[in-house]
Write a structure and sequence with these properties.
5-stranded parallel beta sheet; 61% helix
Length: 398
């Protein structure tokens, strides 16, 4: 980027104080909520509250909570979208909507939240209809209908935008399927100069990684996925998880594309200048067992530190003996918070004791693997059953 471009881009931080101001407003609403709650309890205990009064007071509490929800959505989603990533990937409390939020989605969600708040206000008017002027009821209804119409228009406009993005991804996949070389990143992920220029450094890293086939994210058929959202895959494709030293765990049944995605993410990491090493879980177990038998397990684990990304494919298809299970635990434990691991498995993390044969080892492995991890559950029909002939020559997309 040019100096001018960098300076303009840096001005996004001017918005940061605005979001901290909204955090203070969130505190005001917390105070207001408990103040209203205290008054409600006081009136009920003293016997001065009838059913209508209680209903109106509860609606006020609901109103405050809904506005607070709107605030947190603007604070977290807006900051993440317009200022800087917060880095919640892998956090057990990460909001579901945050994984696919963008300015378009944020606007629709905000409009929906405003409609909900308006509905509560209108309901308060009708509950207290005998003390509400007809003029207020009329305009309250008109304003509420205007909010509904605005939300419907925004939702309608978001459809064509999403369809246009899907068509663009489809065109990219068609272009990539005809290409001979691995394409460079298009979505803004960090890449080294050799990647941008199609240099040999990237190709050498890809060749040395030991991928069983050439797979790229652009060729992944996102259209057949029921989950996750395509934005999740696009975000992972930026390879930011490598610099954060966090992991990626891809879970799903056979043929849902786990290995394809693992290889695609590995290729993106190579393009970003990182060394990658790929092997199945059974192959990793055999490699570490040989190193232990030769008395060089520690040296082997240290040698693997030179690879910022290790791909462990097919966890769950073949049960491990106790020795291999312990060795895989040592591998994950050694790299914990030091380097990234991409793992594919047909089993949910809670069922890994079935393949490890030891609940304690499985739990300890999952605990370290999932602590700083993006866990992606792939929900789709098997690609193999739909395209059996194509996959015989295309590789093995688990």
């Amino acid at each position: 980027m040019t100096t001018l471009g960098c300076s303009l881009f840096a001005t996004r931080w001017l918005q940061a104080p605005l979001y901290f101001g909204l955090v203070a407003a969130q505190g005001v609403y917390v105070y207001k909520f408990f103040n209203e709650l205290w008054h409600l309890i006081h009136h009920v205990v003293s016997g001065h509250a009838d059913e209508t009064h209680v209903m109106l007071a509860v609606l006020k509490l609901v109103d405050v909570v809904m506005i607070a929800n709107l605030l947190i959505m603007v604070i977290v989603g807006g900051y993440e979208t317009f200022v800087s990533r917060i880095g919640l990937q892998g956090h057990r409390d990460q909001p579901e909507w945050l994984s696919h939020v963008n300015s378009n989605v944020l606007k629709v969600k905000l409009a929906t939240a405003i409609v909900g708040i308006s509905s509560v206000h209108l309901l308060q008017m009708f509950v207290n209809v005998h003390h509400t002027p007809r003029h207020d009821l009329l305009w309250g209804t008109v304003i509420h209908m205007a909010f509904i119409a605005s939300a419907a228009i925004l939702a309608y406009m978001s459809g064509p935008m999403a369809a246009q993005e899907a068509r663009a991804r489809s065109v990219h996949r068609e272009e990539d399927s005809r290409a001979v070389v691995i394409p460079v990143q298009r979505d803004g992920g960090a890449a080294d100069e050799s990647c941008a220029e199609g240099g040999t450094g990237t190709e050498e890293r890809i060749e040395a990684a030991g991928f069983p086939a050439r797979k790229v994210l652009e060729m992944f058929d996102e259209g057949r996925l029921r989950a996750p959202e395509p934005q999740v895959i696009a975000r992972l494709g930026k390879a930011d998880f490598v610099t954060r030293k966090s992991n990626v765990v891809l879970l799903g049944g056979p043929g849902t594309g786990k290995t394809h995605l693992a290889i695609g993410l590995g290729v993106r990491a190579c393009q970003a200048g990182h060394r990658v090493l790929f092997a199945t879980a059974a192959e990793w177990g055999a490699r570490l067992a040989d190193a232990k038998a030769a008395g060089r397990l520690g040296k082997e684990l240290s040698r693997l530190d030179a690879y910022p990304v290790l791909v462990v494919d097919e966890v769950g298809y073949v049960p491990f003996d106790s020795e291999v299970a312990r060795l895989l635990f040592q591998l994950v434990s050694h790299r914990y918070e030091k380097a990234s691991v991409i793992v594919t498995s047909n089993l949910a993390l809670g069922r890994w004791s079935e393949v490890f044969g030891d609940g304690a080892t499985a739990t300890a492995t999952v605990d370290r693997l999932a602590h700083h991890a993006e866990i992606v559950a792939l929900d789709a029909d098997s690609y193999r059953t739909r395209h059996p002939g194509h996959l015989e020559s295309a590789g093995r997309p688990h």
